Amino acid sequence: MKVIAVNGSPRKEGNTYHALMGVGRQLEENDIDFEILHIGNHAIRGCMACGTCAKNQDEKCSITTDPLNEWIQQIKAADGIILASPVYYAGIAGTMKCFLDRAFYVAGSNGGLFRQKVAAAVVAVRRTGGSSTFDSLNHYLTYSEMILATSNYWNISHGRVPGEVLQDAEGMQIMEVLGRNMAWLLKMREQTSVLLPKPKSVGKIFTNFIR
Asked: Which pLDDT does position 209 carry in this prediction?
């Protein structure tokens, strides 16, 4: 089994990275492969709302100036996913937001590529805005019919300079508990996959409120 963690921070080894490693160590101790995709330092443009991915049904975004289509396939092949972002103006970092809008739209419009994977959101923040960012990340996971792993508090860790998050004892414990719970869900999902088939996917009903 494998978990892909998406690091939306521009810093490769900033506090977001250290929070993810707190989760990853627990996964690896449970014999689950763990890999971090560092996307936060790439030039990723936002969704153009062209609808090409839905029309072509080829699991690809029409924008090819970044590695997003490769990342989508890596996540599709994984059993679990973690979305991680620093907090910018009480919200998701801009590059991460562009990645999420495009990747999850492609996945959703191509039969639900991330459906029923085990997932979690992780946030690194200096002072405030962590809860709103955590909530925003979870929107992508819950919309995609993913199985959410939880911890003993919201998955938010605090620190300013890179590595300072390691001094947040509660925050790092949250990440460790999240890693153990995620490993348990992944193993339970694997062991019950033969006995209990996934719920069937249904066609999405769209309702507009302006007539």
From this structure: 86
